[in-house]
Amino acid sequence: MEAHFSPSVLIANIVLMAMLGVITIAIIRLRSLFAIVMLGGVYSLVSAAWFQAMDAVDVSFTEAAVGAGISTTLFLAAMLLTVRTAKPSKPIKKRWAPLAVVLATGAALVYASVDLPVFGSAEAPANAHVGKAYIEATPSDVGTPNIVTAVLASYRGFDTFGETVVVFAAGVAVILLIGFGERARAASDWRGKDEEQDENFSDDSHLILRVVSKFLIPLIAIFAFYVHFHGEYSPGGGFQAGVIFAVAVMLYALIFGLKAAMTAFPPVWARAGAAIGVAIYGMTGIICMINGGDFLDYDYIFGPPVEGAHHGHHNWPQITGIIGVEVGVVVAVACVMITAFYAFAGRVPEIRDEDW
Amino acid sequence: MNMFADLHLAPEALAVHAPVLLVLAPFMMSTASVFAPNGRFAWGMALLTSAFTVWMSLVLASDVAREGVISYHMGGWAPPLGIEFRADGLNVLIVILISFMALMSALFAQPAVAREIRTEKQPLFYTAFQICLAGLMGMALTGDAFNLFVFLEISSIATYVLVGLGATRDRRALTAAFNYLIMGTIGASFFVIGVGFLYAATGTLNMADIAERLNGLDDSRVVQAGFGFIVVGLGLKAAMFPLHQWLPNAYAYAPSFVTVFLSATATKAAFYALARFIFTVYDPNWDFVVAAMNYVLAPAACLAILFCSFQAIFQLDVRRVLAYSSVAQVGYMLLGLSVGTVAGLSAGMFHLANHALMKGALFMAVGAVALHSNVWRVCDFKGAAKTAPLTIAGFTVAAFSLMGTPLTVGFLSKLRLYDAVVINGWWWAAVVIATSSILAFFYVGRLLQAAYLMKPDEGAPEIKEAPMVILFALWVLAGLNIYFFFDSSLPLGLAEAGAEAVLGASAGGVQ
User: What's the domain range around B334?
Assistant: First the structure.
């Protein structure tokens, strides 16, 4: 069976892919780091739109939150540590070896694409085998309306555990290699001296920004929790929620100063939270083991499942398990992102007006 | 394997969870080490974790010996819907090796890390070590192709930071770690592209299920391209020539404890994964797989053996001598793998275990010598045998094993490899093995000559004997290099059982 696309979707896909190509070339040719970081964000946003067009809403959401949102912010924070433009590169040498590798890789991809199943075909193995089984089994096995959540947090919850550890490892790497810098060590001294204003952030500067963000930041934080707890019904989940929460803290730091942010959310919390998040995820699985199941077998989360018991509209053990591990993900991801931001931002003598 | 069949090391309730505990214990302990009050406490936690993984790996080995294949279903979901940890003949050896080398490295770590890593960073350093250990374990145990990628990433990220922490001693560690990061990320991307192709062709991620569904798909271009991407991706991680460029600097500038641990485990886990994909996911009898083994992997292996052994002779830094030698040794394993017979693969796996024992000991001795004096050049080793006799003696045993001298286990694995290639009619590979043994004599000989025959330079820092705990670990490894020569039933038995498990008695036809 051929896949049927309406022409408009097809045109949208082609246009979005072409835009990605153009952005990539622009990124390679530009020398201004600021423009490159911005275009990187644009690239993520366009890919998010493209994923949306391909009906992968959860992936699209993640790409928008992580790629366009937080990595752009982190790049900006990192950029403050260096100059604004890349040095003119060394006289361009013709490097044939990398070119050959790239061409060979491209050739292999094209070679394979000939035999790839038609995109979107219901008979493609990717849709017919395990993918189909997930769609059929989720309502009775897990009972979450969002099948992506069932796959990520239950069927393949162990992968998600691993990915949480990846994020944790990244946080550990940032602390070990960069550290929180002098400013973080000073952060403990700032606590309790809130009335002392940072000289760069007197009351009258950025008045509009401050007022607007005072509205926005709590809403962003609440939205993070919405994305988390609603993840089983709609696109979203722990990773996106964690990132969104971290953005709220970062926005606070950008507008009210790092000092204020570090007072509100001390670096020590961020560091501890990264580990605690992973531990929450692991403990959720270990509770299932103690109750006699396999690791992360949520059916055992309240004890061995009763045979034949009909669990009505909601499959509470599975839902509890999924919420439990997602809490771990939120805590770990948010804390690691904040850690990374503090690490970069903590190394510069504050973000000054003339830098922007 | 029989020796494990009668072992009952843990209560049943614990033993059934052994596969996941091998990964879970380091993960949970790594989060706890973040809160360790000081480096010494964190070290104790890491040591405990390593000892626990040794215990669990033995429990797992005994279960596999009794039941053949152990499959653990994560989340209680049976594959292919869920993720499976799968222990069989092939990975039991790797699991035991990684956990044992982790324990030995952890013993070495205490004095080494105390000197090389800044005090406030030590607890997190051990966190990174345990994440790395769990990642390697997961790579060795998982039966799911995408899960393997996740663990590859976990171990890699931890490895980059561990290597980068050599910067307190030598700033070049940062560029070494950065190069490794770039190369490693490219390798991981290639691997995941390959897994993506396999998913497109089969619709599943479980390795056993992929293998089943690949039946008759050997002329699919998707499957063929996937093979290429997976081999290149894992080959990069395993330091397969010519994708090994990241390795010498990473090993040379990392903290010495990290070098000991990585040299004994990291490339081994990637090599195992490569073997797993070639022999159990793909079919080693398919035309394009045979062609890849004969015309790509085998020549690459031979080039690695010759070229990197040769490069090792001219290195000034002792760790770079050993690092280039490591790439050459990966060549040996790869050569055994590319023969594609039971004899070849078992020789490769046997050499893999032996190489971990000898390189672990060698890097330990080098790290011990540098512990007080902070010297790394070959010429700095002059006269070390007089001032640090026990350390250098351990070094010597392992060095002889590396050359493949009789009375050490290195002799046995080279001999078996030699047999395997000769039976296969690859006389040119036999010549390569013989030649490289001569080259190994030169690069190892240079070190021994400096240590035993030369007098230290005027004003050179005196080389002191290593602390007791390092000597203990060093001599356990050196002792095993000798012991396994006389009774190689443990590593060889596991290697042969592994090769037979994946190839079957019929596929090789050579025994």
Answer: 323-511
Looking at the structure, tell me whether residues A25 and A150 fall in a common domain. Answer: no
C-alpha torsion sign, points B126, B165, A84, A44? negative
Give CA–CA dist B111/B50, Å, rounded. 17
Q: Decide: pTM greater than 0.90.
A: yes
Would residue A138 count as lying in a domain? no
What is the mean pLDDT of the segment spanning B104-129? 89
Question: Are the Cβ atoms of A159 and B76 closer than 8 angstroms?
Answer: no
User: Per-residue pLDDT tens for B163-194?
Assistant: 999 888 888 889 999 999 999 999 999 999 99
Beta bridge partners, B84, equal: B73
Interface touch A159/B147, C-beta < 8 Å: yes
Q: How many domains does chain B have?
A: 1
- Residue among B14, B24, B28, B31 with most chain A CBs within 10 A, to mutate: B31
**The complex's ipTM?**
0.92
Residues B189-247: pLDDT tens digits? 999 999 999 999 998 999 999 998 888 888 888 999 999 999 999 999 999 988 888 99
Q: What is the DSSP string of B407-455?
A: TSHHHHHHHHHHHHHHHTT-HHHHHHHHHHHHHHHHHHHHHHHHHHHSP
Burial class (CB in 10 A: 0-12, 13-18, 19+), A219: exposed
Residues of B in contact with A128 (CB under 8 A): 203
Tokens 């009775």 found at: A140
Q: Are B177 and B236 in contact (CB under 8 A)?
A: no
Q: Do A169 and B161 touch (CB under 8 A)?
A: yes
